[in-house]
Amino acid sequence: MSKPALFGLTLNELIALAKEEKLPGFTAKQISEWLYKKEITSIDEMTNLSLKVRQQLSEKYCFGLSQPAKVSESTDGTKKYLFTTSNLKFVEAAYIPDNDRATLCVSSQVGCKMGCLFCMTGKQGFQGHLSAGEIINQLRSIPEWKNITNIVYMGMGEPFDNLDNVLKSLEILTSEWGMAMSPRRITVSTIGVIPAMKEFLERSNCHLAVSLHTPFDEERRMLMPIQNVYPIEEVVKEIRKFDFSGQRRVSFEYIMFNGINDTPRHVKEMSRLLNGLQCRVNLIRFHAIPDTPLKGSPDDVILEFRNALTAKGVFTTLRSSRGQDIQAACGLLSTKENMKRE
Amino acid sequence: MKTWDDLKYSTISVYRNNEIAEGAYLLSFKRNFNFVAGQVVALGVTPTIAPRLYSIASGENDEFIEILYSEKLDGSLTPMLSLLKPGDNLMVSEPFGTFTQTSKSDVYIAAGTGIAPFMSRIRSAKAENPTVIHGASYPEFFYYNKEFENFGRNYIRCCSRCSDDQLFQGRVTDYVKQWSNLDPNKKYYLCGSAEMVVETRDALIAKGVPFANINAEIYF
Fold it and tell me: Contact, A214 vs A260, CB < 8 A?
């Protein structure tokens, strides 16, 4: 069995570890500096720790970084990294450069339990949670990690089904002792697991994105089984209890499906559902996946939909499609690699 | 589900908690709320352990609420649930959820304990001439099979690890894939793990069932 990793531990956990190892209290802070602020990859390189302490740590722990197993690069500069997980499956992270921004889309689970009709990751079933270390490793182990300006938890898995590890990873990313990123540069996306979403909103300052995809109960039920447990009306009702008038943002993701959710009826219901809520809607072109009955809306319909929502006072943006030549749809590449392995 | 904060719940005395097959339990307690067949409740034993959601298996007018669950040895709650004895306290939330639609001649497809919401509909007399397709690894996991005795051909058991003339050998997805007279106009309700639901839904869609006729509840 492999040794437990230091990478992914919070400062409090490192303090507890130092105490257990009978190391001076300040050692925890020194280790966190090495783990999250410097470009080293082994305990041996923590040179302000004595050789004896380094040996002591190395006997019981590993550093915990894991290099990508594969990388695919799109003609538009988007890169998709595949990482091998502790249970020998693959997860994906997408690096998306865009002028002075560089966004990294990270995964929070191997596979997913939520079974959304339009999602390739769901076809893998659920194969495990990622640890906080495995989540941040997707940032720390790519060559562009120092240039990343924004992180979105929109890769494989439902972040709020793995809330403890996601919150831990956010703590490491945003703490002064950690990677010191602004929480305003991080967005966590959910399909609307209400209890965990409330806990996230109370305990983190990062942005929230909610996968909406249709405002109608019956339709959403067919696209997203979660609607049977946590209906979108209830999700929005909960979100209204929090303050988004400052810098913190809530956005709603809306994949455009031809003839399904792209009609004037949907515009009207969307504006009713989101009425008075300080938010934005991100329209997303559908990246087709194998064996799906769904098709993406044509561009003219998407633009008309955006204009109609905007006219209703809903701030609406259209996300540009990236990395289409490298199987950008979340879960496509890892599913292919998992199948090869099997 | 993370905490009991904001969740309306009551502490109820356990009436019965019997192991009905290896690792599978039927837990019951006196009903003190109304619910709609297909709804779930959150259960727990202490506020410090996150509650989990379970479908109600009893009928809407039954005196007792019945919950079917299987023990996950690495889980945080079910090993504790399995130790409950009659008279022990159980935390139970108000019922919620909308996996409650019904129409004539629905098809219910379940794996393992996913049979529970469909039992509730049947026991509530809300299911009119349904077909039940139940998947399990071994015969002892076809819970409630005695209650389906008069279903005749409308009760199909798919056993993935046994062979028996009375049973279809294979998983529910295998059954759906070879189902020759499947009616795409019926409503299909699925309950089980994400993998089972996604595979079964794909198989139904491949057989010509519009996705609008498929409704699923997934364990998570």
Answer: yes
Residue A308 placed within a domain:
yes
Question: So what's the ipTM on this one?
Answer: 0.91
Same domain? For B88 and B116 the reply is no
Examine the domain organization and report whether A27 and A52 are in the same domain: yes
Which residues constitute the domain of residue A246?
A: 70-341
pLDDT of residue A150: 98
Supply the angle between the helices A132-140 and A163-174 in degrees, to the nearest 10: 40
Measure B18 CA to nearest chain A CA, in Å: 27
Domain assignment of residue A293, yes or no: yes
Domain tally, chain B: 2
Answer whether A135's CB lies under 8 Å from A169's CB.
yes
| Interchain contact, A113 vs B219, CB within 8 Å | yes
φ and ψ at residue A169, rounded to 5 degrees: -65, -35
Number of independent structural domains in chain A? 2
φ and ψ at residue B15, rounded to 5 degrees: -90, -45
Closest to B3 (Cβ–Cβ): which among A199, A221, A225?
A: A199
Cβ neighbours around B3 below 10 Å, total: 16
pTM of the model: 0.93
DSSP labels for B47-107?
TTS--EEEEB-S-TT-SEEEEEEE--TT-SSHHHHTT--TT-EEEEEPPB-------BT-E
The reported pLDDT for the residue numbered A87 is: 79
User: Any idea what the CATH number is for the domain that residue B54 is in?
Assistant: 2.40.30.10
Question: In angstroms, rounded to a whole number, what is the distance separating the alpha carbons of residues B209 and A25?
Answer: 63
User: What pLDDT, in 10s, does the model give residues A185-240?
Assistant: 999 999 999 999 999 999 999 999 999 999 999 999 999 999 999 999 999 999 99
Asked if residue A161 and residue A201 are part of one domain, the reply reads yes
Residues A107 and A38 in one domain: no
What pairs with residue A187 in β-bridges?
A152, A207
A319 pLDDT more than 70: yes
Count of CA atoms in the C-beta half-sphere (13 A) of B116: 28
The active-site residue out of A119, A206, A279, A330 is A330
Active site residue A92: yes
Determine the 3-state secondary structure of A46 from DSSP: coil
Among B35, B59, B93, the domain boundary falls at B93
Query: Does B9 reach chain A within 8 Å, measured CB to CB?
Result: no
Catalytic residue check, A206: no
Burial class (CB in 10 A: 0-12, 13-18, 19+), A300: exposed
Give strand ranges (E) for B137-200. Answer: 155-159, 168-169, 188-192
* Structural domain span for residue B142: 107-218
Place of tokens 């996300």: A319
The DSSP symbol for A261 reads S
What is the predicted pLDDT for the residue at A326? 67
Give the number of beta-carbon pairs within 8 Å between A and B.
Answer: 80
